[in-house]
Design brief:
296 residues, Lipocalin, 4 helices
Length: 296
């Protein structure tokens, strides 16, 4: 059996870490122990019922613009850890400490904060004092001071951050689906892609959402098809976009072409999606999308 050196293991750990999305300075203090905050991550996602409860909204339908999570930590995080935090499935860490801001992307409701501690995500109860502000946009910046006191716990943070936001899709659709193994993607691409796909979810960094269909038709070369998106946005725009669809490694690559509207209404799409069983899921720097194959 091959043994990996400590240096190799450390290299793997570094490779799995995600670079910070911006700058952060400040400290989290837990029962007198200080943790300097050195990394920040900002992700846009859809809102869930728990977000409405945290933010004091009437219900999740009151959060139509989605949620931006800003995570400030004492060390870099992997994509898996970030996803666990965003999906409220974080189990904690012996070394990671930080704070998560849950922010209504519309700005209507004030943000809420969650502590990231050894035992996982912790909501501070008891007496809480807080002040500060968070500025929204393509970048989120803020200066926030919070002190939370419970019977046996005192938690406090003072933090300043500035971070670029990127979309983070979640995968409720994949609970009953399986990813296509990399060795079979090319075969499934040719077999599955032709036909009609429904846009189940399409969310951008702004408040615009979209529904509609993708019709995949003519094969123009090996592993390349032409298709057309027919899209209705939450801004009441009706869009038709020609696309060329090909393989990019083990992903499905979309290259947008002719549009029936100006670029100011809808930008030409360039996005790579993962191929799952009857699903295509993925994101680029500004949007995430979930497409489902329609069966007759």
């Amino acid at each position: 059996m091959r043994t990996l050196s400590l240096g190799t293991l450390l290299l793997f750990a570094v490779m799995s870490a995600v670079a910070s999305d911006g700058t952060v300075k400040g400290t989290l203090t837990v029962n007198g122990k200080k943790f300097p905050l050195t990394n920040v991550y900002a992700r846009k996602r859809e809102a869930w019922p728990v977000d409405a409860k945290r933010l004091g909204a009437d219900n999740v339908k009151d959060l139509t613009c989605g949620i931006v999570d800003v995570i400030a930590t004492n060390e870099s995080l992997s994509n898996k850890t970030i996803a666990g935090i965003l999906q409220d499935d974080y189990k904690g860490s012996a070394t990671i400490r930080g704070v998560r801001f849950v922010i209504d992307a519309s700005g209507k409701h004030k943000w809420a904060n969650v502590f990231l501690l050894e035992e996982g995500s912790v909501t501070g109860y008891g007496m809480t004092q807080s002040d500060g502000s968070i500025t929204t946009g393509r970048r989120y910046s803020g200066e926030v001071h919070v002190k939370n006191e419970e019977v046996t716990q005192v938690r406090q943070f003072d933090v300043e951050f500035d971070a670029q936001v990127s979309p983070q899709y979640t995968r409720p659709e994949t609970e009953n689906a399986e990813p296509i193994p990399a060795a079979r993607v090319a075969e499934e691409f040719m077999k599955t892609l032709p036909g009609r796909w429904e846009i189940e979810r399409w969310l951008g960094l702004g408040c615009t959402t979209a529904t509609g269909t993708l019709d995949v038709g003519e094969q123009v070369s090996p592993h390349k098809f032409r298709g057309i998106f027919k899209i209705a946005t939450s801004n009441n725009d009706i869009i038709e976009e020609d696309v060329t669809i090909s393989m990019s490694g083990s992903k499905v690559h979309f290259e947008g072409g002719k549009l029936n509207v100006p670029d100011s209404v809808w930008a030409r799409d360039v996005i790579d999606l993962e191929l799952w069983q009857d699903l295509m899921i993925g994101n680029n720097a500004t949007d995430f999308a979930v497409l489902r194959k329609m069966r007759e």
